[in-house]
Design a protein that fits this description.
Aldehyde Dehydrogenase, Chain A, domain 1, seven-stranded parallel sheet, 425 residues
Chain lengths: 425, 425
């Protein structure tokens, strides 16, 4: 593949976007239903492609975290298909009119939601992202150019092939979904210059990729996905609830961006709380990188509970572990928690556990992050969990969209003005 | 001024933004009221600064269009003050909760509107922009770094000084408004790299500036302001209304971006319509660059009506004239009009004049522009006219905001999640 092929892909996407932009909701939902069915019917070929990717990944020594992201199972495919069906069941954002009003001039002015146009997504080796993004783009009337990680190439290509076939069968333009299969890195460089063909670029991956894309791309970019997430257990927390929440936030899936990285515990509750949590975390093999105070509480219990304790290093604060590791710090006040989060957080998901109303309200108001929680696990930061059906990514920037990006976040609007001959004085 | 000073300015803006983000509506509205009053009370010094700029501009041979943009008059200052008061009267977008719902998990999830943070604006020599942008940023809780054109330096500095003094008097952080007074171009280059200090960059100016900024900036940018605007007079137009609308769209203020550039006229109505419009335009000294068919209609009347006719050149289509010049083309169908606009339009403001319902609806649906009109002058594309109070600019991109950008367009949101101990299954 050469850059001219990529330009041609961009032009085909532009044409497909124009056609898809005028497609009715019924046609788009029918295509989504067929995609969900095909994901189940064609499981054998999809799983076979994924098994080949997994074998190579294992042989190449990919980490457990990365292999977990690469893996497709019948259950995961069924989950992805269910997400596609829930996208189909959501209202179509395209065509919605909002802010309609008649102004003193007599003009009726309103905004009508329209697709963004062509979206390009660069992501790592997570095959499910192929379907999530394509389904959301299709429903919101956008064409998409996909490029997943090299390690997931066979899985992603198999999924993209299913998508294109089914979209064609449904009478919509196949080029609404295109996959860049050539792993040549220089193609990404070229993609970043295709300002006329691409309306939005969504990078999903490590901090390095996202920084590279944000600095080089000539078109709008939504950055995100780096989650350095804190849970702060306030002095007024319900202790049992705080154990459940911190356990879930770390252990449920430690490899996703909304997983707990740092636990902050108020001094007044540390001696009671930390041993209870540490026992649960120990059962799940969570390693704890503790500050001196937390260590003083837990070290005496280390033998009895088989805790994996070590002193926290400075770079543990603000680190995204993506593994069964947590940094733990004892602090003296809500203000200290807010300062720590402002300094080390990545603006993704932050939680307080407390029964104190004023502390809850201050935390909600003052923490500057995409998702701010009271008394719940940060693992809920997810498009489906927030009622968006699925997500194209989680934005940690403030521009255009923040947090999980679902259908509406893939649209723009135009102003429509209904006049009766008005001229401006 | 050196780049380190600009970095320091960025840090001060960041601190001011944090303080302003928590400021109450009452405090912000009070400051805006004081600003409006100061613009009237301190007219002499503001007009004197502007006169100095105007004298130098005239001496330097600035064009009539640019001098018109530079000019402040008592009437224009009063208009600007009125816009500031109307911004104060608008609801505060900050703190609004929307999309709040309780999900099957029992979590109550919603979005709360928050300021973007720090906004930087680079604009040309239009002093009023200084106040428009600062007022909107103040009300929406954003700090702003301003840099106007060199030719307006004294006017802009005088206005910025008033802003800073009044904001301080009102008990809000003075550094919520800062002005980069050093005309050194390399400071702009540095500004474009200040991704950590600036959340949004708004360039307002010529195509070259906007392209330069969009390609170089490392932070989000809203581009716009280039308006190649068409008015299409359909075969089914009310002829008198179409004359009024096209006259207003061109003549009211020919130097702004929403002014008519190209008039498209359906063949069936051209012989009746064009002479009526041409007579009106001739009174206002509008030069008409006509295609062969329009010329054939109008040339015989040239002497009688004192028309300024000339044959259109290829580069007249898609040109933003910013002057009393219009390109005129006779076409055969609505489809042809849609194609012409898709090819030559800049996605700013486009109008159809028609009494045909289906044609009106097709035009509204199919034209891909920030503002699409039926039976009204494109000169209405403006934040105040659209009910936004004022505008920070007119976006012609689809990302984040499109068309006039008012208060809401200067905000982001965060997700708030109210739990009762939920953990994710």
């Amino acid at each position: 593949m050469i850059t001219a092929d990529l330009d041609a892909m961009g032009q085909r996407a532009r044409l497909a976007a124009r056609e898809l932009g005028f497609a009715g909701t019924k046609a788009k939902d029918r295509a989504l239903g067929l995609i969900a069915a095909a994901l189940l019917e064609r499981q054998p070929e999809l799983l076979a492609a994924n098994e080949a990717d997994m074998r190579d990944g294992e042989a190449a020594g990919m980490s457990v975290a990365l292999l977990d992201r690469l893996l497709l199972t019948p259950e995961r495919l069924a989950g992805i298909a269910a997400d596609v069906r829930s996208v189909a069941a959501l209202p179509d954002p395209v065509g919605e009119m909002f802010d309609v009003r008649t102004l003193p001039s007599g003009l009726t002015v309103g905004r009508k939601r329209v697709p963004l146009g062509v979206i390009a997504a660069i992501y790592e080796s997570r095959p499910n992202v192929t379907i999530d993004i394509a389904a959301l783009c299709l429903k919101s009337g956008n064409a998409v150019i996909l490029r997943g990680g090299r390690e997931a190439l066979r899985s992603c290509l198999a999924l993209a092939e299913v998508l294109r076939e089914v979209i064609g069968e449904a009478g919509l333009p196949q080029d609404a979904v295109q996959y860049v299969s050539d792993p040549d890195r220089s193609l990404v460089d070229h993609l970043l210059t295709m300002r006329d063909a691409i309306d939005l670029l969504v990078p999903r991956g490590g901090a390095e990729l996202i920084r590279f894309v944000a600095e080089r791309a000539t078109m709008p970019v939504v950055t995100g996905g780096i989650g350095v997430c804190h849970t702060y257990v306030d002095a007024a927390a319900d202790v049992e609830q705080a154990v459940r929440i911190a356990y879930n936030a770390k252990v449920r899936r430690p490899t996703i961006c909304n997983a707990l990285d740092t636990l902050l515990v108020h001094r007044d509750i540390a001696a009671e709380y930390l041993p209870l949590l540490a026992r649960e975390w120990a059962h799940a093999d969570v390693a704890m990188h503790c500050d001196a105070e937390a260590l003083a509480v837990l070290a005496p219990l280390q033998g009895e509970m088989a805790l994996a304790l070590s002193p926290a290093q400075e770079d543990d604060w603000g680190k995204e572990f993506l593994a069964l590791v947590a940094a733990v710090k004892v602090i003296g006040s809500l203000d200290e928690a807010l300062e720590h989060i402002a300094r080390y957080g990545s603006g993704h998901s932050e939680a307080i556990v407390t029964e104190d109303y004023s502390h809850a309200m201050r935390f909600l108001n003052e923490v500057d992050a995409a998702a701010v929680y009271v008394n719940a696990s940060t693992q809920f930061t997810d498009g489906a969990q927030f009622g968006l059906g699925a997500e194209v990514g989680i934005s940690t920037q403030k521009f255009h969209a923040r947090g999980p990006m679902g259908l509406r976040e893939l649209t723009s609007y135009k102003w429509l003005i209904f006049g009766q001959g008005q001229v401006r004085p």
